[in-house]
TrEMBL record:
Residues 1-22 form the signal peptide. It comes from Pelomonas caseinilytica. SUPFAM superfamilies: Cytochrome c. The keyword DNA-binding does not apply. InterPro entries: Cyt_c-like_dom, Cyt_c-like_dom_sf, DUF1924_SHP. The keyword Acetylation does not apply. Keywords: Heme, Iron, Metal-binding, Signal. It comes from the Bacteria. This is DUF1924 domain-containing protein. Residues 42-132 form the Cytochrome c domain.
Length: 132
C-alpha cells in the first residue's frame, strides 16, 4: 500500500520539529545547567558586576542593554532596538537555548574578546532573574 505523498512527509516533518522543541528552556534551567558546567553556584552580585564592567574593552553588556536591563536597550553601533533582557520584563528572554548560546557567544566576544565561561553566564543569569 502506497501512502499519498503528503502523508508520507508527516513523519519527516514531525521529526524535524523535535529539535526545535528540545531547545525550549527557561532562565532558571539555563542557570542550573551553567552552574553544573561551572561546578559552582551562581552569584548574582558577581553577575551584576560582570554586566556593567568594560573588561578593558570599549563596551560592556550595559552599553547596549542599559545599566539596569529592565527596559528596551539600543545597539551601541546600529541603534537597533533590543528587547529588555531581564526575564521579568521580557517573558521570551532566555527561553530558546540555541538563541541564548548564539547571543552569549557573539556578545561575549564583543565585550570580553572571548567566549564567556559557564560561571559568568550563570552569574549574569542569576542577576537578571533577580531584577523585578
Amino acid at each position: 500500500m502506497r501512502l499519498k505523498p503528503a502523508l508520507a512527509l508527516l513523519p519527516l516533518l514531525a521529526a524535524a520539529a523535535l529539535p526545535a522543541l528540545a531547545q525550549a528552556t527557561s532562565p532558571a534551567r539555563l542557570q542550573k545547567a551553567y552552574e553544573a558546567a561551572a561546578d559552582a553556584p551562581a552569584q548574582a552580585e558577581r553577575g551584576r558586576s560582570f554586566f556593567i564592567s568594560r573588561h578593558g574593552a570599549e563596551w560592556s553588556c550595559a552599553s547596549c542593554h542599559g545599566q539596569l536591563p529592565v527596559d528596551a536597550g539600543r545597539h551601541a553601533v546600529t541603534a537597533k532596538p533590543i528587547d529588555p533582557l531581564a526575564p521579568a520584563f521580557n517573558p521570551k528572554a532566555f527561553t530558546d537555548e540555541r538563541r541564548v548560546e548564539k547571543w552569549f557567544r557573539r556578545n561575549c566576544k564583543d565585550v570580553v574578546k572571548r567566549e564567556c565561561t559557564p560561571a559568568e553566564k550563570a552569574d549574569v543569569l542569576a542577576w537578571l532573574q533577580s531584577l523585578r
